[in-house]
Amino acid sequence: MKLSRIALAGGVAASTVLLIAGPAAAHVSVQPVGEAAKGGYATLNFKVPNERDQASTVKLEVNFPADHPLSSVTPQAVPGWKIKIDKSKLDKPLEVHSRKITEAVSKVTWTAEDSEIAPGFFQQFPVSVGALPEDADQLVFKAIQTYDNKEVVRWIEEPTEGGEEPDSPAPVLKLTAAADDHHGGGAADDAKKADDAKEGDDHKAADTAASTKETSAAASSSSSDTTARTLGIIGIVIGVAGVAFGVLAGRRRSA
């Protein structure tokens, strides 16, 4: 009986921990696919869990940081969701690939059409972004989640270093160190790798062609030597035969 009470008390305590920890962890978050290196490009997943038992999520708004504007923001299509992209003018234009960018994406909104996030489920919303800033360690994306019962949850509180997690924390993207070329990987690295691979293939092709040429020349030289030797031997045989014929003819005349 005593052991049963202890087990029951332990079960209740564990359930209480799960109930407390569950809602605290169920908030909109952002995670990169791979790394999000400074100065590079990355694909981000905005993960949206449904916290309510009696309502479904039908809308997500993600605000992009104005203090570190991104020159490229491309959402991936999500079946059953309509995407709206808002842009704003930049106070200071960005210099990207030798051209000036005067506006950047300020907000992306996903609205459910033929789909929704039901209770007990989550949905990911992928976005390709870049170039990530080189002078920041993280980016904060303030998000707003709307349910079909008109409830709105604002995930906009910025966490502080060493402080407790806010009740409604904003999604935070941690940036990793830039690559050696200071571009943080991404499309630039892929292009460089492709060029290096092509250059290597060109060198291999040139070496192969030179080797083939040398082999052909050697084969041709060998063939010429063989022909000359054969003709020489034939000439010697014919000469010997001629001499022999002459000797025999002289003997016959003498006789």
UniProtKB/TrEMBL annotation:
<keyword id="KW-0472">Membrane</keyword>
<feature type="compositionally biased region" description="Basic and acidic residues">
    <location>
        <begin position="180"/>
        <end position="206"/>
    </location>
</feature>
<dbReference type="Pfam" id="PF07987">
    <property type="entry name" value="DUF1775"/>
</dbReference>
<keyword id="KW-0732">Signal</keyword>
<keyword id="KW-0812">Transmembrane</keyword>
<feature type="compositionally biased region" description="Low complexity">
    <location>
        <begin position="207"/>
        <end position="224"/>
    </location>
</feature>
<dbReference type="InterPro" id="IPR012533">
    <property type="entry name" value="YcnI-copper_dom"/>
</dbReference>
<feature type="signal peptide">
    <location>
        <begin position="1"/>
        <end position="26"/>
    </location>
</feature>
<feature type="domain" description="YncI copper-binding">
    <location>
        <begin position="27"/>
        <end position="175"/>
    </location>
</feature>
<feature type="region of interest" description="Disordered">
    <location>
        <begin position="180"/>
        <end position="224"/>
    </location>
</feature>
<dbReference type="InterPro" id="IPR038507">
    <property type="entry name" value="YcnI-like_sf"/>
</dbReference>
<feature type="transmembrane region" description="Helical">
    <location>
        <begin position="231"/>
        <end position="250"/>
    </location>
</feature>
<protein>
    <submittedName>
        <fullName>YcnI family protein</fullName>
    </submittedName>
</protein>
<keyword id="KW-1133">Transmembrane helix</keyword>
